[in-house]
Amino acid sequence: MSKILQIGPLSENFNQALAAEHQVTALWQQADPQAFLREQGAQFELVATSARFGLSAGQMELLPSLKAICSFGVGYDAIAVEQARDRGIPVSTTPDVLTDCVADLAMGMLIDIARRIAESDRFVRSGDWEKRGFPLAMRVSGMRMGIVGFGSIGQAIARRAGGFDMPVRYHSRRPVADSPYTHEADLQELARWADFLVLACPGGDATRNLINAPVLKALGHKGYLINIARGSVVDEPALIDALQQHVIAGAALDVFAHEPKVPQALREMNNVLLLPHVGSATVQTRQQMEDLLTANIKAFVESGKLLTPL
Ligand code: NAP
């Protein structure tokens, strides 16, 4: 039995199965988690966490025996990965198994905001259809898609865009070798070219406020922003301003700067789609993510090696 510190809860099934196999301490159930870490942190060699709960630099400091961090999800912006690297602590995530579901949702969000699906649902439910007609929407097929961040998820979105005959270009720091899609080194140029700008890059300091007022201006009054990456990638006040001033046509957002807080200004707008960070949230994918987290923990306990390290 290994002593594992679990930072936040996952599904009840997962929590129970982990506790049956290992000696697990639930940090979120401690009356004062910081005080607990100060007093008891030295006993833990393994941390189980998630993209949402992460592991801060302050927490890591209180875990002097830590040897590995196993996380649920692919985002690692909430994990102090630099400190982990400095201490030689490997970090695993759950790549690949969630790619399809996140890409599916990005397409769903794009079609929704362009064709005003959620908005027209509200229109019918409110009885407004009996009073007037519904305004025209924006075409999807054949329109241009710009993708920011062209890793597993960005490329899966591009493949789906092909089914809608959408020309695709992408922006990332380095071009992807042998990709059939055009790399655009200048983000503003990509925004100017695109009808839909889809964000699929990591969060964290390197991408903070990458989508700012000039990029939104370049996207233009007929352009839509789709964000399934991280809220930190977008300058949220600049986005609200751009939506209010009709600098861009609309936005579909699965992620926000201060989740689960969503600015009132966004909630009041009709030309935005707001989702509660559900990119990977299907029964099948969440199960696969938990299975991969479990497999990483097992591999580390048995062999000292992670299966899917960063
Ligand atoms: P990935 O395979 O690592 O791809 C990341 C891509 O972003 C790469 O193309 C990378 O290329 C690019 N990138 C990194 N830093 C950049 C920068 N500063 N500027 C521009 N491009 C940059 O990751 P993935 O599996 O596709 O996942 C991408 C992100 O999606 C995750 O990090 C996570 O935050 C988010 N996500 C969200 C949900 C959700 O529920 N909404 C679910 C899963 C994942 P270069 O290194 O060449 O720049």
TrEMBL record:
Domain D-isomer specific 2-hydroxyacid dehydrogenase catalytic: 15-307
GO molecular function: glyoxylate reductase (NADPH) activity; hydroxypyruvate reductase [NAD(P)H] activity; NAD binding
Keywords recorded for this protein, A-Z: NAD, NADP, Oxidoreductase
Gene Ontology cellular component annotations, sorted alphabetically: cytosol
Gene3D superfamilies: NAD(P)-binding Rossmann-like Domain
Coiled coil: none
Superkingdom to which the source organism belongs: Bacteria
Residue ranges annotated for the D-isomer specific 2-hydroxyacid dehydrogenase NAD-binding domain, each copy included: 107-279
Family as reported in the entry's similarity comment: Belongs to the D-isomer specific 2-hydroxyacid dehydrogenase family.
Protein name: Lactate dehydrogenase
